[in-house]
Amino acid sequence: MMTGPxxxxxxxxxxxxALIDPGPADAIHIDTVLQLLNGRPxxxxxxxxxxxxxxxxxxxxxxxxxxxxIGLAPPSExxxxxxxxxAPTRLYEDGETIDCGDFAVQLVHTPGHVSNxxxxxxxxxxxxxxxxxxxxxxxxxxxxxxxxxxAYLNSLRRLQSLTLHSLAPGHGRVMxxxxxxxxxxxxxxxxxxxxxxxxxTRMSGESxxxxxxxxxxxxxxxxVPHLLxxxxxxxxxxxxxxxxxxxxxxxxxxxxA
Length: 257
What we know:
α3 (149-159) links the parallel β8 and β9 (166-169). It is built from 6 helices and 13 strands. The strands form 3 sheets. Strands 5-6-7-8-9-10 form a 6-stranded mixed sheet, with no helix packed on it. A 4-stranded mixed sheet has the order 1-2-3-4, covered by helices on one side. A 3-stranded antiparallel sheet has the order 11-13-12. The protein is α+β, with helices and mostly antiparallel strands. It has helices spanning 27-37, 57-65, 149-159, 178-207, 212-219, 228-244; strands spanning 10-12, 17-20, 42-46, 68-70, 97-99, 104-109, 118-122, 127-131, 166-169, 175-176, 210-211, 249-251, 254-256. The model has no long low-confidence stretch (mean pLDDT 94). It is elongated. Helices cover 33% and strands 19% of the residues.
């Protein structure tokens, strides 16, 4: 659920291979990955973040291959969607480059969707593996309290400083013209922020502070009803950002401009 066309796993390399996002702990999927290796060693497993559709297959693959596990541990104060089984081989730092022989991969910390999210830049191809930070044809859900709208926008702006040739998302197809995609995402999020302010100002002016459940219907009137619970999570991230900036106030579950 919520994975669109499914979760992408990417194999990189020729003789010694790396895998990005092994996905769920699904035995058939893991066997398929092992068959694709065709006898070649899998030496590295890169994990963009520790949600259940991206990382739980790591333990099974490492048990079968002995691969080095590269990623950030699940945050201790996050919601229940985190994969607590995930354990990186060691501590990794933002900007660190992993030398994989025929290719090199740079770690780019991109908090926002969740705090431990990484993108991986395949330096020779200038291809950025974006996990759930950038998706094809849709925007990611921001999941407070661990996820942060302010951090998400800052992470997108950081990617604008990189030389990129393509984006390989965790869900959807590889995208060309990366900077246009990133700019469109930033514009979309800022447009939604302005809409949040307008609707919040109107609704709280009419009836006082309004609940998240009331507000989401007005701010996300372009979203089908069954997705409103997910939209509500991102709306909360917008409101927390506005509160931090002094543009919204919160009284328990109620909000006003």
